Amino acid sequence: MTQTLVARLTQSPEPVMKPGLRIAGVSGLFDEATKAGIPKVWDGLVPRLPLAGQAGATTYGVCAAAPEAAPGSMRYLAGVALAEGAPVPEGLELIEIAPRPYLVFRQVLNGGELHPQMQAAAREIWGERLPASPWKLARSPDLEVYPEYFEPGVAGIAIEWWIPVEP
Length: 167
What we know:
By secondary structure, the chain is of the alpha+beta class. The protein is 16% helix and 38% strand. It has one domain (9-164): Multidrug-efflux Transporter 1 Regulator Bmrr, Chain A (Alpha-Beta Barrel).
């Protein structure tokens, strides 16, 4: 019998305005069949940290539509914020995200393997909570936000999911 993992999520009652970000990092294209490969994207970023021009130690997973790819595909970028005007380090991509409101979901990790917990949270957020919410999704990237003290496999660490909504 397979046990279904339950995400430990809390949700902001109202959208939260977040500032714009310049995020530099490494990305890949994924779909439903290949999304298990997302953790490998981080392997291309983490050894390079900290970056010249990096603004803070928070790391971000940025999920964006991929119109250049097959329907249902997304571009996932693992990155860090760059200071305004800082050049993008060689070999990395830059995504600029405008200030906007987000529904913020806080996920407390259980200390086990990270990817299954992330998948459980994504299923709950996208499959249950968003369809039941009164908010209209915006056409903008959504973000996974990992605090500077993030350590995979440590119980009690919390990450955030920022889901863009219309103002």
